[in-house]
Amino acid sequence: MQQNDQQELAGIHAANVTAWFEANVEGVSPPFEFELIAGGHSNLTFSVTDSEGNVYVLRRPPLGHVLESAHDMGREHRIISALIDTDVPVARTLGLCKDTDVNEAPFYVMAYVAGPVLHDAETASALSDEARQALGLNVVDVLAALHEIDPDDVGLGDLGRKEAYLERQLKRWNKQWEASKTHEIPAMDETSRLLAESMPEQVGATIVHGDYRLGNMIVGEGRIQAVLDWELCTLGDPLADVGYLLNSWIQPGEVEEDLAPTAAGGFPDRDVLTARYAEATGRDLQAIDYYRAFSHWRLAAIGQGVYKRYLVGAMGENRDLDLDVYKESVTTRAEAALALLSG
Fold this sequence. Notes:
The protein has about 350 residues and is of the alpha+beta class.
């Protein structure tokens, strides 16, 4: 879509954003083409292509009124910038705009990183078995590397409170659940109660990504090229990331008609992942089912927020989402969490 037609693209004020690019990003060559990148149900991500074919990526919050804490562009920009020179691959940041007069919401811009994002089994099937195996091991290695970073060493020591991570998360997502609830799900309430009753002691505090899965990674050559979507990142218990990753790591045939990328087969299984992570970090994973239950429950709360935003039109028009299916997926997550705690 050419710049002159951009007023029709929800989330981008083409003239203002073009002027901002010219003033803040070196070497750009307008006019620009803006395109919404598919796959995001929270913050909106756009590709920005200039007249010479250079591609940039712009991130901004969803349209309309949203719960504020998960959509802080300055915070996400700060986290990615802090990790650029570490063993965690991220896209290079190019600028942050806090002036809401430019595009009605803050946004930031980063370099484009080439490579596929494995959103589903079909995309993953395009990789060789060798690449899938190598990628799975690299996914664990990068997570271990993230958790070995001292937040103070990269300027993120004040990103959040380091202690009482699970307690804080339960409070936060219970609040989000109440703010976004459109119907009753008994398993959510029962899981919340059990999570509070059986909470393990936190051992150490690290940078926690909060949404670490293949669908939030650009990959290539059997490795992660860039970890994406840092909007839920904070400081806290690293095992929350491990539990979340394991939940996303669906084995072939484990769930009927599951579309998770790992359902394509050829990836190392959960036991390999947990053993490799434990060896790399020295952490005890005996209570990992608690963290898996917590992650299912938290994802149900997040999903409910997404469902409500679509329901009220905050994610723009013509978005490809079956609301009934998505509503049911929240219940499925809640019940999976309860099963892990009750087993």
